């Protein structure tokens, strides 16, 4: 599998994933520096960064990286050994099942670009779309009357037309956290009244949209709006998930005590009708020896 092509496909589909790259490894670990994999938001691993025990630690750390949006250096160590020197920003996973060696894996979350819906075809709308695209926003320009994209984090209404109240109402009903209306304070109040904006929704509506920088031209107004969006994303966590992007099922390996992510590839067996999950085939074999009725 060409992981570069696969990563591009996931990006086009706006699916979150983590790029995992082995940067250091000690024998007898099976991974080598340069090995890489993609960890999807459901815990699926495509590629190779080590055996099943290592993959368990990678899945867990990848979920955290997707939640925070921050890159992480994962250090997977056997038993209680701490053979790599401490590194700020590194996460240590002590894996009792590793037969030896240690691995350092760089985890880089790849999150979908924030989706911005721009309503209207005015000079301000065109400038907002242009500025936002330059900052790697995914910009949607829907047809009049179309519902906002399901994963949009912001809607900017710069149409100066009669559909403004409907667009604002649809954005608020969709739960979008930032709704910007390009209008004077007086006209903005009239539009919000027509949209029947409730008091508990008012904080999500920004009118006049944008930071107060004394903007006059269409480009300056667009700059102030995009700057306000960046501020909302970076300082107010606009669009950030309040919980892990994916919460796959987990189970505790009864042999080694490790928490494992349950996927189609996770070793397991049935004990008296109950599924038991393991970090690796070795733990499963050890369990079978003690429980002869397992299947």
Can you describe this structure?
- This protein is of the alpha/beta class.
- The protein folds into 3 domains: 3-110, no CATH class; 115-236, Rossmann fold (3-Layer(aba) Sandwich), CATH 3.40.50; 250-292, no CATH class.
- The model has no long low-confidence stretch (mean pLDDT 86).
- The chain contains 7 helices and 15 strands.
- The longest helix has 18 residues, at 218-235.
- Helix 3 packs across helix 6.
- The strands form 4 sheets. Strands 3-2-1-6-4-5 form a 6-stranded mixed beta sheet, sandwiched between helices.
- It has helices at residues 3-12, 52-68, 123-134, 164-173, 185-194, 218-235, 281-290, and strands spanning 17-25, 36-40, 45-47, 72-78, 90-95, 103-110, 115-119, 138-140, 152-157, 178-181, 205-206, 250-252, 259-261, 268-271, 274-277.
What characteristics describe this protein?
elongated, 3 domains, XdhC_CoxI, alpha/beta, XdhC_Rossmann_dom, Carbon monoxide dehydrogenase accesory protein, 24% strand, MoCofactor_Util/Proc, 29% helix, five-stranded parallel β-sheet, single chain
What is the structure about, briefly put?
The chain has 295 residues and is α/β, with parallel strands linked by helices. It is 29% helix and 24% strand. Strands 3-2-1-6-4-5 form a six-stranded mixed sheet, with helices on both faces. The protein has a five-stranded parallel sheet with strand order 8-7-9-10-11, sandwiched between helices.
Sequence of secondary-structure elements: HEEEHEEEEHEEHEHEHEEEEH
The CATH topology label of the largest domain is Rossmann fold
Radius of gyration: 25 Å
Average pLDDT, rounded to a whole number, is 86
Strand order of the largest sheet: 3-2-1-6-4-5
Structure classification: alpha/beta
N-to-C span: 33 Å
Sketch the major β-sheet.
6 strands, mixed
Pick out the low-confidence regions: none
**What CATH architecture label of the largest domain applies?**
3-Layer(aba) Sandwich
- Percent helix: 25-40%
CATH superfamily of the largest domain: NAD(P)-binding Rossmann-like Domain
CATH first level of the largest domain:
Alpha Beta
Number of strands: 15
